[in-house]
Amino acid sequence: MSLEKEAPEDKVAVIGMEGEGLDHLTLESQRRIAAADLLMGGERHLARLPGSSAERIVIGSNLKEIAERALSGLKEGKRVVVLASGDPLFYGIGAFLIKRIGKERVEVIPAVSAMQLAFARVKEPWQEAALVSLHAKPIENLLPALEEKGLIGLFTDETNTPDAIARFLLERGEAGWAGWVCENLGGIEERVGAMTLEEMARGRFALLNVVILKREKPTDAAGADRPVRWEGAFGIPDDLFVYRRPKAGLITKKEIRVMSLAEMGLRRNGITWDIGAGSGSVSIELARLCPEGAVFAIEKNREDFELIDRNMRRFGIKNITAVCEQAPAGLEHFPDPDAVFIGGSGGEMAEILSLCTARLKPRGRIVANLITMENLHHFSHFFKEVPWEVTYTLVQVSRSKPILEMVRYEALNPITIAVAKRKGEG
Prior knowledge:
There is one protein chain. This protein is an alpha/beta fold. The chain has 3 domains: about 10-110, 3-Layer(aba) Sandwich (Cobalt-precorrin-4 Transmethylase, domain 1); about 115-215, 2-Layer Sandwich (Methyltransferase, Cobalt-precorrin-4 Transmethylase, Domain 2), CATH 3.30.950.10; about 240-420, Rossmann fold (3-Layer(aba) Sandwich). Helix content is about 30%, strand content about 25%. The strands form 4 sheets. Strands 13-12-11-14-15-19-16 form a 7-stranded mixed β-sheet, with helices on both faces. Strands 3-2-4-1-5 form a 5-stranded parallel β-sheet, sandwiched between helices. Strand 11 (about 270-275), helix 10 and strand 12 form a beta-alpha-beta unit. Helix 3 (about 65-75) packs across helix 4 (about 95-100) and helix 12 (about 350-360) packs across helix 13. The chain is elongated. It starts with 11 loop residues before the first strand and ends with a strand. Mean pLDDT is about 90; it is low at about 1-10 and about 220-225.
């Protein structure tokens, strides 16, 4: 077999590599690597090519530089090769390079991906599995897959390790999962281990690994509330929630929830706070509208706080973290929010607003439901001293109610929806 250099190619060759050897590479891949004038790849990829005289650039967090150097190399008439793991278009560098320098300048030669190898090793069909990358991403990105699938493949990193993932699941009551950790796939130190979450949480693993999770039993504990399946996008009917029911009904009513949510400027991956969460109706709506984000709820009343967990289980919600404390105590442990909902202040309105305005991310909003004149006064007085834009909407909702053979309207308590944002932010 001849690997002599040929005429320069006019495309960047993005070549997938599997394991530690080169025998799996096609003849064309071997030819392109041997002929390269510029080789770019991870340290472990470049280490496999000790005899190459090509210029080498190690790929790390310098992806922009890699794209620029690949393009300039082509313009200089160089043969450019980028080495990647597995399939470069499956959570790999291939998509990034195509976006930066164009499809017409890139050729992709894939190998078997690490995810494909992992499912082959554990002998599980993966056509119905959810595939999630936690590489340099929040671990909360796992949450939507937990609700939708019973089989999940996970790419990890040095932060979201198998043991960290297992602890994350156990802390959220997801003890019904087991799985496999597949380390150094394709290499001489390959190891595949089946284990429970408890075992995974105690383990220590090689940096290069793939995790596969499989649901073994339902998550809900015995005696939990029957799950609720509601297909709407938002505006969940009040009677689907578990909540304390005096005459007025201690829940943020559907109509008020919908209007408040519309004012919050929500993003699918946003961090939201629900202060004075009550039984969690707003938190549940937020979690459904932001499936790739996380909701942090705080409620001082123990009876209401326990209902948040029941409602989470009813709706199969996993991306809510709730604490039983009186705000602003407890908020210091929450990550900075993209949006804040205030449903109750416990008499600490000024202190809560002071903390929220300091920690709210740029272009974020604070939305408050103000029932009493006193809370409206405290809210408006605070923002007289703080140069933010504030709007107030007084909402009066009446619902139809049958009376004998007729229908009349019954009014709900009027409420002010206040919206605050920094001046100049949309």
